[in-house]
Amino acid sequence: MLVKAIGTSKVSIRLSLWDNFNEMQHDDPVPQYTYLVNRISELYPGLAYIHVTEPRIVNFEVQDPKGKSNDFIREIWSLRSLISAGGYTRDLAIEWADTKGDIIAFGRTFISNPDLPRRLEQNIALTPYDRSTFYDVGWRQGIYRLPICMISLLTVDVEFCTPV
Ligand SMILES: Cc1cc2nc3c(=O)[nH]c(=O)nc-3n(C[C@H](O)[C@H](O)[C@H](O)COP(=O)(O)O)c2cc1C
């Protein structure tokens, strides 16, 4: 329906195949998602991108992926845009972008670091997130009260700054 309405290139899909959020865990998601990504490739090769969450994140906790991997999706969807999210640090993001060719997405650290791209670019320490504030309503905390690191607005290289 979306593809018909706005065109394939403006549509994408996010696949969270390893998570157990809302009790959705599979014992082995690989066969089903192999089929799904193959069908997407056949029917909608011009989809803007596929976005995957990594098996290192389950229910918001970083854990050992124990051999689980999205590489089978990378193989099927090869040469097209794949965004990967889940527990990335700056170093890990650089390593995966370089070795796997993924576009890296950040979730929680973006909430506590609205200037995240600049901080990553300049290797400035990140403000830790506070999960208890994520869903705060109003202007008190969480995503509505975003500390911006002023030094990151400068174009000089700095290693650390205190959020204001
Ligand atoms: C406040 C909040 C809301 C989120 N909402 C969604 C959502 O609606 N759909 C979804 O697929 N993921 C959602 N996520 C998961 C993130 O998109 C991301 O996959 C997850 O936080 C792992 O990436 P990270 O380790 O960089 O945070 C949410 C995460 C947070 C913190």
From TrEMBL:
One matching Pfam family: Oxidored_FMN
Task: State the superkingdom.
Answer: Eukaryota
Molecular functions (GO terms): FMN binding; NADPH dehydrogenase activity
Indicate the segments forming the NADH:flavin oxidoreductase/NADH oxidase N-terminal domain, all copies: 3-125
Q: What is this protein called?
A: NADH:flavin oxidoreductase/NADH oxidase N-terminal domain-containing protein
Q: What is the lineage of its organism?
A: Eukaryota, Fungi, Dikarya, Basidiomycota, Agaricomycotina
